[in-house]
Amino acid sequence: MKKINIIYWIFTGLLLALMLSSVIGTFADPAGSKTMVTDHLHYPIYFGELLAVAKALGIIALLIPGYPTIKEWAYAGFAFDLIFACCSFIAVGDPVKGWAPFIIFFAIFIVSYIYFHKKLKAKALGTA
After folding, report:
1. Count of Cβ atoms closer than 10 Å to residue 112 Cβ
2. What are the distances in angstroms from CA 47 to CA 16, 29, 58, 91?
3. 11-46 burial by CB neighbour count: b if 16+ within 10 A, else e?
4. Which of the listed residues 41, 78, 93, 114 has the most CB atoms within 10 Å of its CB?
5. DSSP-assigned letter for residue 66
6. What is the pLDDT of residue 45?
């Protein structure tokens, strides 16, 4: 169980850091965020801020102990965010170097999610 917890928290910490950096970037540099969201990706201005708030709530959901169903929803939201962001960069014609980092982001997400379920299963079996 200790190995499962260590791997879970390493990859979940990386995932949360990724999402938190996006949230901070949105609110710390609103002009840069606006340029990326509206001018480059062609989304409405409010879209980036809405995503940032949703990511912040997802971060909180993964950090609070218990509530596995809410954590599932947070993981689903992060999956949609990563998939749609990657597709958005591809759709506007960004080169591979613009969207290739998403492969690493997906890998971090997948490991965190798999070990979340391993942790739940170990707890259910009483090996926690």
Report:
1. 22
2. 20, 15, 16, 17
3. bbebbbebbeebbeebeeeeeebeeebeeebeeeee
4. 78
5. S
6. 86
Angstrom CA distances, 13 to 59, 70, 72, 93, stand at 10, 18, 16, 31
**Alpha-helical regions (H) of 29-95:** 30-34, 45-63, 68-91
Q: What is the DSSP letter of 64?
A: S
Q: For CA atoms 9, 7, 73, 66, give the dihedral sign.
A: negative
Instruction: Please state the domain extents for the chain.
Output: 2-125
pLDDT per position as a tens digit, 6-64 = 999 999 999 999 999 999 999 998 888 888 888 999 999 889 999 999 999 999 999 99
Tell me how far apart the alpha carbons of residues 126 and 128 are, in angstroms, rounded to a whole number: 5
Each residue's pLDDT tens digit, 55-80: 999 999 999 999 999 999 999 999 99
> In this predicted structure, what is the pLDDT of residue 42?
92
